Amino acid sequence: MTRSQPAAAHQPADAPPKLEVINITKLFPGVVANKEIDLALNKGEILALLGENGAGKSTLMNIIYGLYQPTEGQIQVDGRPVELHSPRDAIDLGIGMVHQHFQLVPVMSVVDNIMLGSESVDRGLLDRESVSAQIRELAERYNMPVDPNAIIEDLPVGVQQRVEILKALYRQADILILDEPTSVLTPQEIEGLFEVMELLRNQGKSIIFITHKLKEVLRVADRIAVLRRGEMVGEADPAAVSQQDLASLMVGRKVTLEVEKEPADAGEILLQLRDIEAFTDLGEHALRGVSLDVRAGEIVGVAGVQGNGQTELVEVITGLRQAAAGSVLISGQDMTNASPRRVTEEGAICHVPEDRHMYGMVDAYSVADNLVLSSYYKRPFSSGLTMNEQAIAQHAEELVARFDVRTPSVRNSGASLSGGNQQKMVVAREFGRPIRLLVAAQPTRGIDVGSIEFIHSQIVAKRDEGVAVLLVSYELDEIMALSDRIAVMFHGRISAVLPRRDATREQVGLLMAGAGAANEPASQ
Amino acid sequence: MATASTTTGFIRLLRALLIPFLALLAALLAGAVVMLLSGDDPLAAYSGLFQGAFGDGKSWARTIRKTVPFVLTGLSVALAFKVGLFNIGASGQFVIGSVFAVAVGINFDGLPAFIHLPLALVAGIAGGLLWGAIPGVLKVYTGAHEVIVTIMLNYVASLLGGWTVYAGGTQGQTPGPLWDRTAGAISETPDVLSSAQLPWLFGPPYRVHYGIFLALAAAVLIWWLIFKTPLGFEMRTVGHNMRAARYAGIRVNYTIILAMALAGGLAGLAGAIETLGLNHKFAPEFGGAVGFDGITVALLGQTHPFGVLLAAFMFGALDGGAAAMQFESGVPADIIQIIQALVLAFVAAPLIIRMIFRLRRQTHGDAGSAVSTSWSGP
Known about the structure:
The structure holds 2 protein chains of 2 kinds.
Chain A: E1 19-28, E2 31-41, E3 46-50, H1 57-64, E4 72-77, E5 80-82, H2 87-92, E6 95-98, H3 110-115, E7 121-122, E8 125-126, H4 128-141, H5 157-170, E9 175-179, H6 187-202, E10 206-211, H7 214-220, E11 223-228, E12 231-236, H8 243-251, E13 269-279, E14 285-295, E15 299-303, H9 310-318, E16 325-330, E17 333-334, H10 340-346, E18 349-352, H11 356-360, H12 367-371, H13 389-402, H14 419-431, E19 437-441, H15 449-464, E20 468-472, H16 476-482, E21 485-490, E22 493-499, H17 505-512
Parallel strand pairs in A: 3-10, 3-11, 6-9, 9-10, 15-20, 15-21, 18-19, 19-20
Antiparallel strand pairs in A: 1-2, 1-4, 4-5, 7-8, 11-12, 13-14, 13-16, 16-17, 21-22
Helix pairs in contact in A: 14-15
Chain B: H1 6-16, H2 18-37, H3 42-54, H4 57-82, H5 90-105, H6 113-142, H7 146-164, E1 200-202, E2 208-209, H8 211-228, H9 230-240, H10 242-247, H11 252-279, H12 289-300, H13 305-329, H14 334-348, H15 350-356, H16 367-375
Antiparallel strand pairs in B: 1-2
Helix pairs in contact in B: 2-14, 3-4, 3-13, 4-8, 4-11, 4-12, 4-13, 5-6, 5-7, 5-11, 5-12, 6-7, 6-11, 8-9, 8-13, 9-11, 12-13, 12-14, 13-14
């Protein structure tokens, strides 16, 4: 990847910064979310705000956007002190924010969403025409093509994000805050977003880019500010730092980004998939004849852009989705369309699900209850008639200690944990029992560097114990770092299986984009 | 939750009951305003209400008698709620339970009471179970929403109950199978045989039957089932997060059908107890209004079995005191229904209560959020 061009010199030497945060402190009951933070954003600059989950990035941005009032400190725009009591004040000052979870009305059109809250009215009626024209003009100028009349829910996530950015621009934003904008995007969409960001920057807009992904920061930022535990711990020049430096700055200790592992010692085949066909809930053909073997003691990484059948593949293996054709053999036993319980019990399989909130945990349950979610019915947790609360609590204490899940107590609710600790909780539950096959889908999605390092080392440890590991990830880096063999999925097929030592990023990237698919026999 | 110790559980229960308590208070105040507007004296009315509910032994007896069915229909709605289901059908399940119980109660002459009475009670439960299982099965296999189906089945149950005791028409239409042939033109069943009647705890004039113990036992049993057993864990998991339940290997469909059936069984038991303990017969007017009140009771009790006990007791007292209130103060007893409806409105809209009483929003995980998540079941 190429580094972006340095920022255009929009900032006259003597002019005040576009936005300046001076000595901001924000206290919540019992928590110092931001402590004496100073931050300046210049005109025509992309400033990356880097930090782990819970470092105080969102709090700071919500203060700038008028959602929170700072306990102490001041905000200046163009050198003038301002008071922000609501997002309305922020918008009036030219500050726009694209939230991680889009604030769009799914059933309404692009133009309706963009003018929502600042409707253009002509003789008492909504003036969609002129707004549409303005949207087209903005879209053209910033190279973000979008149909103003399209309905939001019909649009891909990447285009929805474009609408959010256009909404901010339509409201004359000069300062754009992008909160974790890449977490929902495919690699291609991410690159597209970066190009838009650079275009905006070159036309004089100022951007705060919030993320915890180091590679992206180095790719697109002009300047990097790092937050840790509510404090600004340093600034960095992307030309002069490495990912390693940034990670250490973020976490506050030395972090190994490379996964250390010995070559695999692969044994017998534990998971055998043959010609699997499956459909999505909407009836789309999701898996088109998938065959794959995973051996004991090896990690097979499934690479691919999200939505190429990975989700369905994992669901078929774990019993959550019916296979329309084909067979699933686990440890030699036919487990095609077996119930999830049978797959777990007889297949000795464990499953780290792709979406922990949707599948992996019950938010309202305590950590202890979450840790027995897939074994609550077994001794000693249940005697058949009643649950043994003491055994459940004791089991939780052990796992929490072993897997370093940070929680005040095992009685706290799962929802109260940070994302990284929630994931560690899921991993603790799944890894904490005897298994032969591990199916891990997006095991490090949306979690901090420290937790990623820990979970990666646990996966490798399982492999070294002789567990067969199927790893599904949309992060190519994760696939490259962990896999012994790489299977690339494209359009519901495994388009190639490569030994890791023969695979390059470029080659896998091309296969992910469908390059190898043309070489397949037409009969498939 | 399963791991919480009993002390923190008790404190949590108290905290969860704060909003319902304030909702009741607000409803009583609003009722007072209505009375003032119509020129009545709220103090006299509420004093009469209190006298009617707790004034003497007979008042207490009436309050307890009225509490019993509220407990069971409240538990019925609350149990379904825990599984993320909205049982609007307690009314119909109550009627079917009554009919099943009375069918056993008026037959089998000569059976000893220790067989006949339990048999009649079990028949009532079974009737409710069946009636409750129907919406469960339809939901699982056809996707029909339980709210719609249970509402429909209320009408079916009501008309079916009416038919079983139909006295026959003047043009020689066939009477219903349970109709009392000695009753002439009146549509009702014969009296339940004494061997199937619930015995009096305090006989006339108090008329408190042993049903109160059945209701208390049911509340403890349901509490134990929901919070202490693996089955309850499965039910709560389905209620909180159906996908996670499937992931965890829980048979979601089975759990849904079972929960609806058990909810129906509780309402059916309510019908059986009213029939075998109090009315000693079934007639169409012994219908299931108490089933609809079960929804309010369950919400007022924050869908917790012990909360339901308290809420049912409050409703029993309101109902029990209503007639005395009208007698003492001239305020129509109907005002009590207005108050009960306002309670539901305030419980369902806790934000209003928080605003009126200037409460701070509680942290996540309180019982209020459990109610709101249950509404959005698929």
